[in-house]
Amino acid sequence: MRNIRSARVLIAVAMTVFASLAPARAHHAKLVRPGETVGVVIPAISHGEMPVFAKYRAEILDLAARRAQTDPTLRRLQGFISLQGFACFWGLAPGALSDEASPFNECAHGYIAGARALLDHMAEMPGDRREAKALQNRIAADLARDPAASAICSSSNEAFDSGIVVGPDWSLTLTHVPTLMTVAGLLLTVSGGLVFALASHRRRTTKA
């Protein structure tokens, strides 16, 4: 019983530290004023466009990776998408793409907007732009067929900066039930694993 309580305390402390160290919500409007940007300005993406561009994100990144010619803007956008996706748990959190109340929705806007900006940049770069423009046309066709593509949310007017990674808004965790249940499930899983490991260690010690 003591081992179980100890494991729970350790997990609670770890989660508290993790949440306190996680990137805070950024006020993007202040980050994209002319002359004040750190990297490349990434235009905002609407709530309705998110699922469509998310479907093509891997294809956009693959196209960028295969380009023979690159430039600083392309490389900065690639780096931003990678870091922003990692900070947002790659959109795997419940409601990250679809629910504006999710702690992960704003940061998901970041890496999906980055993917769109990367594709738009490739379509304008010197060299062979046929694949990029063809992909743009396919995405445009999907958006035209999707009645929800014009939907907006509280993050739909937020531009991003490739030099600033935005993490989840942890202050929304307690009010977002799907995220709360996911965190609780993860904590129970980790807790169970620790208790099992401690019990196994205790048995081995006793036998020795």
Describe this structure in words.
It is a single chain. The protein has 208 residues and is mainly alpha-helical. The protein is built from six helices and two strands. The relative contact order is 0.20. Keywords: Membrane, Signal, Transmembrane, Transmembrane helix. This is Transmembrane protein. It comes from Rhodoblastus acidophilus (Rhodopseudomonas acidophila).
In short:
By secondary structure, the chain is mainly alpha-helical. Helices cover 56% and strands 2% of the residues. Helix 2 (50-65) packs across helix 4, helix 2 (50-65) packs antiparallel against helix 5 (130-145) and helix 3 (72-87) runs antiparallel to helix 4.
Encode the helix/strand succession as letters.
Answer: HEHHHHEH
Query: Strand count, sense and closure of the main sheet?
Result: 2 strands, antiparallel
Q: Provide the structure class.
A: mainly alpha
Question: How are the strands ordered across the major sheet?
Answer: 1-2
Q: What gap, in angstroms, lies between the N and C termini?
A: 22 Å
Protein name: Transmembrane protein
Keywords: Membrane, Signal, Transmembrane, Transmembrane helix
Transmembrane segments: 180-199
Signal peptide: 1-19
